[in-house]
Structures are given as structure tokens and as C-alpha cells.
Design brief:
The protein is of the alpha+beta class. It has one domain: Thiol Ester Dehydrase, Chain A. The chain has helices at 33-49, 133-139, and strands spanning 14-19, 62-72, 81-89, 95-104, 110-122, 127-128.
């Protein structure tokens, strides 16, 4: 089976730092794959909040995650400070991809690359919606 190949955009317009917690460590003694998804979720919350958005309110519309891809590159350990770069790209009329690059801030090694596809969703009507104009203006290049 071929490995996933994830090509990241050249430019990231947001970054944040998250320290690897003891609860992020698996039985192998390194950063667990399940924790990566939680870390990028936290980074996405911060990315949205930077523009005054939340996952449940972007001009009255929420988002749902349609899929996720994670490509692991090297190990992370307890206490490592991770720099997570985030950007939105590959827009369509109902959503976009959000890309993440997780780097060990001390060594510069890439720990993982990830992509989540988000779709805009009205939780009241239970229907997929168009990308809000305010989101496009904030992130679309």
C-alpha cells in the first residue's frame, strides 16, 4: 500500500505554539497519532479565533470536518514545543482544506503534516451552506 503524500501550500498565514503534554505520549514513549489530531484541532480553533470566528459561528454558520489526512515525519516527545503553522486553501463553494505543518521548535524537524477538509454547515437547518463571504475575505488568497 502506498503512503499518503501530502503537499503543503508554500505560504502559511498563521502559527501557534503547543507544548507536548504527558497525556499526548503513547506506549512507545513518543507523541501519539491520536494526539496529533487533537493538537491540530486546537490549532484550528486558534486559527479561526485569530479572525474572530469559532467552529460554531462564522457569520452564523458552523463548520464540520469532512476528512483528515496526517503524514508523520518524525517523533515528538514530552515537553517538546511544537510550532503549528495553519492556512486555508483549495476553496470550493461549500468548504475548503485547512493545512497544518507541525515542527519541533527546538530542532526544526517536521513532526507531521496534516490537512482537514471543512464544510460549512447550518446546525439549525441541518444543511450544508456556501462558504460565508466573511471567511472568503479573511482567508482566500
Amino acid at each position: 500500500m502506498a503512503r499518503v503524500k501530502l503537499i503543503l501550500p508554500e505560504k502559511f498565514n498563521f502559527s501557534t505554539f503547543i507544548d507536548v503534554r504527558i497525556t499526548d505520549i503513547n506506549y512507545g514513549g513518543h507523541l501519539g497519532n491520536d494526539s496529533i489530531l487533537g493538537i491540530i484541532h486546537e490549532a484550528r480553533i486558534r486559527f479561526l479565533a485569530d479572525k474572530g470566528f469559532s467552529e460554531s459561528d462564522i457569520d452564523g454558520i458552523g463548520i464540520i470536518m469532512a476528512d483528515a489526512v496526517i503524514q508523520y515525519s518524525s517523533e515528538g516527545f514530552y515537553g517538546d514545543r511544537l510550532r503549528i503553522e495553519v492556512t486555508a486553501d483549495e476553496f470550493n463553494n461549500k468548504g475548503c482544506d485547512i493545512f497544518y505543518r507541525l515542527t519541533n521548535d527546538n530542532t526544526g524537524k517536521i513532526i507531521a503534516k496534516a490537512k482537514t477538509n471543512i464544510v460549512f454547515y447550518n446546525y439549525s437547518t441541518k444543511k450544508v451552506e456556501r462558504v460565508p463571504e466573511v471567511f472568503l475575505n479573511a482567508y482566500n488568497k
